[in-house]
Amino acid sequence: MTQPEKTTRRQALATLAAAPLALVAGQAKAEHPPEVQKKFQPEEHWRKRITPPQDGKRYGWFVDTRRCFGCHGCEVACKAENDVPLGHFIRQTIYKDVGTFPQVKRHFLPVTCQHCEEAPCIKACPCGALHKGPGGSVVVDYNLCCGHAACVEVCPYGAIYLDPVAGQAVKCHNCYHRLEVGMEPACVATCPAQALYFGDLNDPNSPVVQAMKRAQEQGETLVQLRPQRGTRPRAWYAGQAAHQAEDRIPQEGESYGVETYNIHRWKEENESPP
How many CB atoms lie within 10 A of CB 144? Predict the structure, then answer.
């Protein structure tokens, strides 16, 4: 993960005052790695599916890791809402201990599908199941999913797994069934620390844009996960956890799993400052 050049508080406030959408406009110039591009289908197979519907919305996420204290409430709510089986996760809270005793600190990093603008899972899906749904959410059409798992192989965030019974791809869909009735995603509604924000990035008054604005006004530099992968994710993070714990996030060909919380990982040494 790379961090953009830090701006002064005065510069940040000036940018916000002039154009609130600047919060969501900046993207690192990058491309999908060659080994990932080799797994893509011909462009004519995915170009229509990767184009979001013209519904005027652009859903996205902001995670304030400064507030997260690792309660895993978001995971529990997600599992209950989406009937996620044991051993599998649609979202996880990655943690990492840094520093040397007695100067130590545990960072918590909630992660899930980044609902990328240039979603590699859509480009690699051979059956045409993955596509952009309402607000540009990356969703799965289960009438088409054949369980090929190409989406798992190319996702740089480990955000997709194959259901052990149905043999189909499962991932975050922004709880679109809740959005349809005016509710927030289950994880957002459950988070007791108010660390998760979701909403329409095109609406300057939406909770997600307002939360990002407040973080920048406080001098925070908002970062994204692995922007060098060229996916143009729709999730931004504040706080040090995105930098400190990024190396713990699954990569291409991997999925969230129970080993993330294996007690034996507690003894892993890290000389990073707390």
Answer: 13
State phi, psi for 128 to the nearest 5 degrees. Answer: 75, 20
Residues 84 and 170: beta-carbon distance below 8 Å? yes
Of 22-26, 45-49, 70-74, 94-98, minimum mean pLDDT range? 22-26
Tens digit of pLDDT for each residue in 127-150?
999 999 999 999 999 999 999 999
Report which of 238, 19, 251, 233 is spatially closest to residue 136, judged by C-alpha positions.
Answer: 233
pTM value is 0.86
Is the separation of the CB atoms in 171 and 159 below 8 Å? Answer: yes
Retrieve residue 33's tokens. 């790695």
Give the pairing of strands 59-64 and 235-238: parallel
Distance CA 55, CA 36 (A): 30
List the structure tokens of 28: 């690192």
Token digits of residue 113:
């599908």
The DSSP call for residue 260 is: G
**Omega cis (within 30) before 102:** yes
What domains lie within the chain, and their CATH numbers?
A: 9-267 (3.30.70.20)
User: How confident is the model over 184-232, as pLDDT tens digits?
Assistant: 999 999 999 999 999 999 999 999 999 999 999 999 999 999 999 999 9
